[in-house]
Amino acid sequence: xxxxxxxxxxxxxxxxxSLLWAALLALGxxxxxxxxxxxxxxxxxxxxxxxxxxxxxxxxxxxxxGLERLEQGNAPASITELKLLEQQxxxxxxxxxxxxxxVQQNSAHGSGVIITPDxxxxxxxxxxxxxxxxxxxxxxxxxxxxxTTFGMNRNMDAGLLKIxxxxxxxxxPYATLGKSSQLRQGQWVIASGHPGGWDQDRGAVxxxxxxxxxxxxxxxxxxxxxxxxxxxxxxxxxxxxxxxxTLTGKLIGVHSRIGTDVEENMHVPIDVFGDSWERMVxxxxxxxxxxxxxxxGVEGKASTKxxxxxxxxxxxxxxxxxxRVGDKVTMMDGARISTFEELRMGVESKSPGETxxxxxxxxxxxxxxxxxxxxxxx
Length: 378
Hints:
Layout: E1 3-4, E2 13-17, H1 19-24, H2 68-71, H3 79-96, E3 100-105, E4 108-114, E5 120-124, H4 125-128, E6 134-138, E7 144-153, E8 158-163, E9 176-177, E10 188-193, E11 205-218, E12 224-231, E13 243-245, E14 250-255, E15 265-269, H5 270-281, E16 285-286, E17 294-295, E18 298-299, E19 307-308, E20 311-312, H6 317-321, E21 328-332, E22 335-336, H7 340-348, E23 355-362, E24 365-372, E25 374-375
Parallel strand pairs: 2-11, 7-16, 9-14
Antiparallel strand pairs: 1-2, 3-4, 3-6, 4-5, 5-8, 6-7, 7-8, 10-11, 10-13, 11-12, 12-15, 13-14, 14-15, 17-25, 18-20, 19-21, 21-22, 21-23, 23-24
């Protein structure tokens, strides 16, 4: 079989690749034990304790006996190991559903993960969009919550928002944090998100894959640090900002750039968020993400109360799809567009290669155009 599904009764789906697929990707090396990074909430309290303290968060799952070799990054060598892997992935999937959220700003949809009991949510910077913006967070049970975007490190596509206070008694469920500095190529990972936007009947969608590459650079002190993780998890639009976990349910990355090919999915390492935490909590926004600016080739006036196309790039995606100067954009991906600023925010929340559905009004008639988002040239 090519895929296996957990029972229909579950509000999410988990896909695991076949034994043959796993064997072909047996490139992993040894994975050393993970420690917990220190991430603080706005109150200054540590989100997780050090590795020698009790594990915090709700997503940790002890590794089942018999999976030690697979945790090292190896492929299953028998049906028994494959079944154990599937069972472990299913246990983690059940845990991470409660902390995986859908993030919505007007027509823009993405994903996120709750990481503190007071409601801080990690996401991608291009999903958050900017600091101090109102947002909606949808939980796995369908609860809609008001939230506010905080700071972001655009150099790394790391973003932060927080669920507004006063909407719940007690703590929020939150993820157990891992440490991305100790990841290794070939390691098994479990990705979660809300592809295509929020769907309560479906819930969070779980994908399984392996780490293909870990890109590193040196910081100002000369220390080598991971800045991008590439995996073969099968992600699509709407997954951006969603979490990636180890086989023991520890959060080690957030989805960033989703490519058109399965091997082009990139994730922000969790350590990047730890390094940027204090500035993001202060709602600072800094940096740019080279080669990542989503682009459809339209211009308009932000001051008007309608999203009127004032200028088009004749070589751009929107013009090629059929959009014309003077068109009034009324909807994007099924969500109403009232201003050109909303259209801009919606496009900026996408990744190059994703397809958006734009509805425009022209001379009293409505037209729908699928547009493949491109990359703005510098």
